[in-house]
Amino acid sequence: MKKIRIGFFKKSQGIFTEKLIAEIENELRSLPNVELFTGLDFRLAYIKNGRAIIGDFDLNTLDVYFWHDTIKPADWGSDNYALNVLRALENDCIVINSSISTQIVNDKYLAHTTLKKQGLPVADFALVDASNKAALSAIFNSFDSSILIKPRFGGWGAGIVKIDSLNALFDQVDLLLSFSPKQNLQILLEKYYPNDLSRWISVVVFGDKVLFGYKKNVIRENDWKICDPEKTDGKGFLSEYVDPSPELKKIALAAKQAIGKDIVCFDFIYTSEGYKIVDENGRPGLYAHCLEKAGVDIKKEIISLIMSKL
User: Fold this and answer.
1) What is the CATH number assigned to the segment(s) 4-96?
2) Does residue 264 contact residue 281 with C-beta atoms inside 8 Å?
């Protein structure tokens, strides 16, 4: 019987210690009819004749390739090299955390659009040319409330600005234009919903199951958003395990299916209209204490995710 060729790449970071990674690799090697290849960082590959190659190893000879890491945000809006490598690999191989899902989840405009098209409860949003004041005015008036300027490619809550009047919106956009070297600067706007910060929750999805939810204490003093720009809670010490309601689990799973990212989480706020998704994150907080409280064996979940693709 032909062996299944699995590529596994995960750097040591956070809960993924060198020990845990070694245990995952050893367990994969022990599976029948599996040939495991490790240390294959696709970001170091070159593309030859439409195939992704590292050194003299052709990644396209793999059956499944697992990766879970970051891609540099530079040029997200244009032609990202790392995504081109994944696209080449996907011609012949099943990639866990695919190129298209990675592109979507890292671009809040694309992610919001994808969820909205599926009828999911994502916050109302708009994309606008910053120099188009008529459009800015129309958007502000249509939201009939305060408005948020949000970084299109995320930032741990940093860079989100709440605007309460049209003149303030014009002033803030003019400031952005004065610092931006780009022509036709695009700005992502989102409707602001008064919400109960104590009911903010992030729901982590792994494959086709919800692992757990968590909430964060307000890290920077404010009364309207969760914010951790200095990444002071990178290991989740200030995060608290939450078991999401059946309603939130259903929404999160539907959102995962829409975007397609195999490892993802969704941030929800609670508004007068019910829960709204306000952020999509391809690097969810897989915090050790939350996994423990949820009774989740992350090693088992990773192996199950990989084998489910075959």
Assistant:
1) 3.40.50.20
2) yes
